[in-house]
Design the sequence.
């Protein structure tokens, strides 16, 4: 189980985020995804804690809290969805075509 932390400052570090969550229990892991092309932080992260009770306490206390000048969005992380093969989001059929006349 993991916690999603959104609306993070682009200046955040894994250590700083870990310290904030450590107030609510043992932090197992912190992940801060970066953009593949720029290497810049994406403004969200994931935190894994020792127990579900610790995670619940952290979510309750930190959701909506202001940190580093931003209001945090903190909730249970949803499982990553399998998006299947990448085809540009058009279902493989070319998409669009809404303005064709069919008389």
Sequence:
């Amino acid at each position: 189980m993991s916690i999603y932390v959104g609306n993070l400052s682009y200046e955040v570090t894994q250590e700083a985020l870990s310290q904030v969550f450590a107030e609510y229990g043992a932090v197992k892991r912190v992940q801060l995804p970066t953009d593949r092309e720029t290497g810049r932080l994406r403004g969200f992260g994931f935190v894994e804690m020792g127990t579900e009770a610790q995670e619940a306490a952290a979510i309750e206390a930190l959701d909506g809290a202001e940190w580093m000048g931003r209001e945090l969005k903190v909730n249970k992380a949803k499982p990553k969805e399998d998006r299947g093969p990448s085809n540009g989001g058009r279902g493989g059929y070319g998409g669009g075509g809404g303005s064709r006349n069919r008389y």
